[in-house]
Amino acid sequence: MVQSMVGADANSSGQLAVAQSGVHAGWVARSGSFADRMPVWNTTRTICLIFTGEDFPAASSGLAGVVASLVDRYEKHGAKFFAQLNGWFSGLLIDLRTHRAILFNDRYGLNRLYYHESQEGFYFGSEAKSLLAVLPSLRQIDQRGLAEVFSAGCVLQNRSIFSGIFLLPPGSQWIFHADGRIDKTRYFDPSAWEQQEKLDPAGYTEQLIEVFGRITPRYLSGPEPVAMSLTGGLDSRMLLAWSGASPRTLPCYSFSGPYRDCADVTIARRLAEVAQQLHSTLRIEKDFFQDFPSLAAETVRISDGSMDVSGAIELYVNRKARQIAPVRLTGNYGSEILRSNVAFQPRRLDPSSFTPEFNELLQQAADTYRQEAAGHRLSFIAFKQVPWHHYPRHSIERSQVTPRAPFLDNELVALAYRAPTRLATSPQPLLELIAAGNPRLESVPTDRMLQRGKPSLVAKLRQQWQEFTAKAEYAYDYGMPRRLVQADHILSRLHLERLFLGRHKFYHYRIWYQNQLSDYLRTRISTGSPSCYRDGAVAQMINEHLGGRSNRTLELHRMLTVQLIDQSLIRPR
Question: N or C: which end of the chain has fewer CB within 10 A?
């Protein structure tokens, strides 16, 4: 199980068997990271902890030495210890005094724990491949989960894409007793935050500035170097404004595609200059296309099939980011938590590509999504969208660097629940936050030309232009309708993509599949058709896309991913 999770040479690993408890466990960690030195024992060797991830305690000024104090904190506070943890983590705690073992994860479930329960025992791991390695009977795709991936982009309801493998729910504290009983409890319930009173607009903005300014330095602490991935939006700008970093001590970088410097790069470069920090542009080079087959396969394997092959670009750029610093400070989840942005929903698919049975599962997936989305909007985002939809990309980032984002800090999320209704989706409190941290950063236009107060006529025109170019780029890439695909194919020698692509995004798979990756696509025709497709559908999709008759980009992502799941996880060599 451990060997299946060991990746880069920088990973350290180990195993532990505690005869008194009947527990056997192992771990993998990036060398030099927070969780590198495992396991941790108390002084009397009656409490043992295996911990992965990071903890950002409110009472600590930094991460250094905190890992050694985790057991001491449990010894002092008992079960209350788990609710005090703040970060993305999972772990196993063995208490020989009470003859119990406790399996736990963070309150958002972002640090996944997969498990399988049977008469033979309880198996768990932070990666599904560790279970597949020792339980061959689980090496089969769950068709319901696959339909949810095709429809909504991820498996729902704490299930996985593998039959018989499930996810530990967010905020879990599962207690294993010596007699075999398992108490499947939770140390945190979102209703505790939902029941808070709303703040008035001025009070909310004031507390947002106070809380954000206080928590952000936690995420720049620790012995490892930290660099920031900087974009043209609000989220990373908030971090830069409140980082407290001295000049030239916080390296910044942005990702850029092959056509031009996108808005993220040009704006981030200016932001870094204003903040007196160094900025690097990490570009997509020719080697990405040459290495795409191996990058795609590795992406699917690393993410346990949860990330589709488009995540190869994330693997590529995060490997470059690792050369700058092992820790990546990012604005991830900012718009989701502070502007209640629901980032995924079911999409309509061409039913002619699938078998009748799978089409029924696709409809069921849409119904399941609607059921899960009912209720408190922010709770859906924090406790379902984050662990289900955002985890796949997070898993790729985490394989290369240690990602950190204060926007899932317990204090900040709790405050977001108290936002007055008219500010819950508004950028105005965030602009006030930036101005309070560094007013010079607020003066740099965002990628959507957002600003405090009423915009001028010139600002409105610039905003409309930015919105137009963003929509035009989407329409020319993922969103290009069939009638325009054929016209674009006829005019392909003019390379009209140079007019639209690269202004806001740094990756463009529709064009890449037709050009740089076309040979790779052709090789996949003979690889085999997954059982969810009708006969001939795979070849038809590939030929239609390559021939410029239809835009099949998203369908190709999914199809290629299923093929690679079968090759690397179901039937590995």
Answer: C
